[in-house]
Amino acid sequence: MEKQNKSNGSQEETMQKQKGMQSSQLMQLFEDELKDIYWAEKALTKAIPKMIKNATSAELIKGLEFHLEETKEQVSRVEQVFEIIKKKPEAVKCEAMAGLIKEAEEIMEECESGAMCDAGIISAAQKVEHYEIATYGTLRQFAETLGLAKAGDLLEATLQEEKAADQKLTEVATRAVNVEAASKK
Ligand SMILES: [Fe+2]
Ligand SMILES: [Fe+2]
């Protein structure tokens, strides 16, 4: 009986140790993803104004302007999450977002301004939103697993804004741009 207890005890210890290791690895992953999205959001505060400048649909411009303001707030939310985990905000270049922004810039360079350009901007912007939705979905899940409730709430708030921005872009595309682009063929 005693022997069994002893073996249960050490098993438990091993499990605890593993759990501890897993959670510190998860925390590292969480921090890395946070640095990635911090870079991405800051890059977007510079990229979205270029999209606004190149867009022609009033509805698209309004939508992008609205999301630009949200994006600035999202930068500060990421900073608050860094604060919660007691780390200094640090941005690490996100190659995926850099690629998506580059793609958007190429589209804007190549298109003639008007409906077709708007359609290109929407397509590029939706790819950006989808990347953000994936990242914030993961981050929020990690925060939950790590027991970081307040961080989870902040990440959830941003996730909802990204989803709404994506939805808005879909609406603009369906309502105005695509119809006009097709009729000009
Ligand atoms: Fe964002
Ligand atoms: Fe966004």
TrEMBL record:
The keyword Coiled coil applies. Residues 1-23 are annotated as: Disordered. Keywords: Coiled coil. The keyword Heme does not apply. Residues 61-88 form a coiled coil. It comes from the Bacteria. PANTHER family: PROTEIN YCIF. This is Uncharacterized protein. It comes from Solitalea longa.
